[in-house]
Amino acid sequence: MPLSLEPDAVVVVTSPDAEAEISARGLFEGGIGAGGVDAAVMAAGDFEAKAGQTLAAEVNGRPTILVGLGTEEDLDVARLRKAAGALARRAGRAATLVTDLVEVAAGHLRGGVSEAARAVTEGLLSGSYRFDTLKGNPGEAPALESVLLRVGTADAEPAAEGVRTGRAIASAVSLVRDLVNTPASEMRAVDMADAAIAAGAAVGVEVEAWDLDRCRSERLGGLLGVNAGSVHEPRLIRMEYSPEGAERTVVLVGKGVTFDTGGLSLKTSEGMMTMKTDMAGAAAVVAVMSALPALAPSVRVVGLACCTDNQPGPTATMPGDVLTIRNGKTVEVLNTDAEGRLVLADGLSLAAEMEPEAVIDLATLTGACMVALGKGIAGLMGNDDDLISTVREAADITGERVWPLPLPDIYRKQLDSDVADLRNIGAGRYGGALTAGLFLEEFVGDTPWVHLDIAGPAGTDEAGGEYTKGATGFGVRTVLEAVVSLAGSD
Ligand code: BES
Ligand code: MN
Ligand code: ZN
What we know:
By secondary structure, this protein is an alpha/beta fold. The protein folds into two domains: about 5-150, 3-Layer(aba) Sandwich (Leucine Aminopeptidase, subunit E, domain 1), CATH 3.40.220; about 175-490, Zn peptidases (Aminopeptidase). About 35% of the residues lie in helices and about 20% in strands. It has helices spanning about 40-45, 75-90, 100-105, 110-125, 155-180, 190-205, 210-215, 220-225, 270, 280-295, 340-355, 365-375, 385-400, 430-440, 475-490, and strands spanning about 10-15, 20-25, 55-60, 60-70, 95-100, 145-150, 205-210, 235-240, 250-260, 300-310, 320-325, 330-335, 360-365, 380, 400-405, 420-425, 450-455, 460, 470. The protein has an eight-stranded mixed β-sheet with strand order 7-8-10-9-13-17-14-15, with helices on both faces. It has a six-stranded mixed β-sheet with strand order 1-6-5-2-4-3. A three-stranded mixed β-sheet has the order 11-12-16, covered by helices on one side. Strand 11 and strand 12 form a beta hairpin. Helix 4 (about 110-125) runs parallel beside helix 5 (about 155-180) and helix 5 runs antiparallel to helix 10 (about 280-295). It starts with 9 loop residues before the first strand and ends with a helix. The model has no long low-confidence stretch (mean pLDDT about 95). The structure holds ligand BES, manganese (II) ion and zinc ion. Zinc ion binds near residues 257, 260, 278, 339 and 340.
């Protein structure tokens, strides 16, 4: 896995004189001179301790990286994670690093030491992520091999706890990045299934992968309709985390279109360039499932990843064809490029059959959502205000950006078909994220459900903070946080 820093390499130390090649010190904006750092050093480097700013300097004759945390009042986990990510990038040729970031930040966070340790661990690991296995000359390998998080003796226990969860979350995030960054020719539905089986086996989460025949016998008409043009088999991946004593069930559903050509409603070459990422929702579901044992929430969680590529060809679904979804509803496919909702329709139907307390789906579903909210923010829709709030609060805690969009009943009639129960597109381009959401709503029945349209934030063109260019792993943190919160509330 291209985490250049191994998860186990981030550790807690309590000795005040723990040695490393280089040390890193967290500083707050306005706290010039704080912690014995010479104001002149900071001024010379034009360093104001703004959030995410870093400066390599000599402090007390030792090589030190100064890490800006912004103003004390505004510190939150997202900012701390970003600062740690920036530090990982800045560590240069040092193999070992010791830092006081956790100690410095802990007092300013609601969750104290463990939350600070978790955010710092996530940032260090996610910020050091690389996807360079396909480069002939990947450039100089990052040197950083271990990071010591220095805390007071009394804080050792909660810090270690935070490091453990941070590692699990960062590993999940980098799993998503790997799966999404891998070219589509090497990440077919069967490859997704293999990855899920491996990830599940490593942590003791059950995994099943339904092959073509099983998808047929299970009547997954949406997934099969999208798969019809492909020479590659689809897979419906089902993962289950079932801790003893759990009374509730949450089902996660992910869109796993391993490549979206648009099908016969073919995309333009430009529109296709990023379409290897169209399985980011499914990848997030697989990764969340794989992180659950480490977080150990007391709730049963089932993950469903609906995987296939979407290809044109003589056997492909044609505009005007009618598919029968798992729940019996018929759909007239008028645009084969609106395929995500078809594979999710089966996944959501399966989810609703389990009568869970909550269903959350993640999907790179619409370009329209990117038009509405841009690249950095996911659209949040659903049929249950409490669940919407839960996911929104979870996103606020993790710092992933989501924004609520409506499911307006006045647009529902756009989905009426002349020949079937539904058509798979609205009447025009306007409100495309909402008509997609309204379509999905048809398959969840009365089950509380939330839909995250992650078409924008699943990838990024800019490296910064804990992000590297390419796949982000968006949704993993928020969904994990939401699951933990659903486990804890009544
Ligand atoms: N996978 C795309 C959505 C997408 C577009 C994700 C750009 C990331 C970047 C989805 O399957 C799609 O093609 N949606 C169509 C729907 C339309 C045909 C109703 C779209 O958004 O144009
Ligand atoms: Mn499409
Ligand atoms: Zn798609």
